[in-house]
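Dock glutamine; give full complex structure.
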Amino acid sequence: MTELLKFNWRNLFLGLGCLLLVIACNSYNPSVNPSAKTWKIATDPTFVPFEFQTPQGKIQGFDIDLMNAIAKVSGFVVQFESMPFDGMISTLQAKRVDAAISGITITAERLKTISFSRPYFKAGLAIATRKDNQDIKDFNSLKGKKIAVQIGSTGADFAKTIPNAKISTFNSGPEFFQDLLNGNADAVVSDAFATLYAIKNGKINGIKVVSELLTEEYYGIATPKDSLHLDAINQGIATLLSNGTYKQIYQKWFNIEPPKLPESL
Ligand code: GLN
């Protein structure tokens, strides 16, 4: 016992080692510690085919494959954390996660409070109606109609610009499509790719997409404002674009050639 209390170099090093470990563990703060190896990534797995759950509860999708591939080339491990889309921006602001990937459109409004990676997906909004609907064909025919949207989405922002529209908001895609099918809503304004995919793959029936794209949007991986992780994420995307992995993931989910992406917006 007295041996232990006596000064010796071995005890000093052990003590210092423990102290450093404690400091390292306590200082985990995603936005200031880019060397942390496991990154918490928020996602809302209700957005087929970008992020959704298998009947066994496994999260999969285009975004999931892309994020895992970025992690692989940039040398970190991903831990996905499911949460409702509407809460994601405030979760990022509070730095409770390292990043979020969830088909999040890069917008000027969002850039005021969070940061985005370079664009990783070209997207846009479209109008969907029940298959038997004949009168809704374009933006003008939405005037005064009942529109269902997802809370906090770019579709919800767009719906606000439709004159006299009666807007109802829902937490996720499956819910607003149900509202349309029930006959409560006349139309839905939502992300075209996700809607078209859900229709084509039988995830939703009795619905059609009408009109051309209403907007041109790009998805980005969102982080807390000016996160030190952004460099690694951007370099990861650049690597996957140049080494063919991005194209491979794109074709796996969409069966078509990916469009060219701008480096920034
Ligand atoms: N792209 C849309 C947005 O950013 C919707 C994304 C989603 O529903 N996951 O608002």
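Observed: The CA atoms of residues 136 and 142 lie 6 Å apart.
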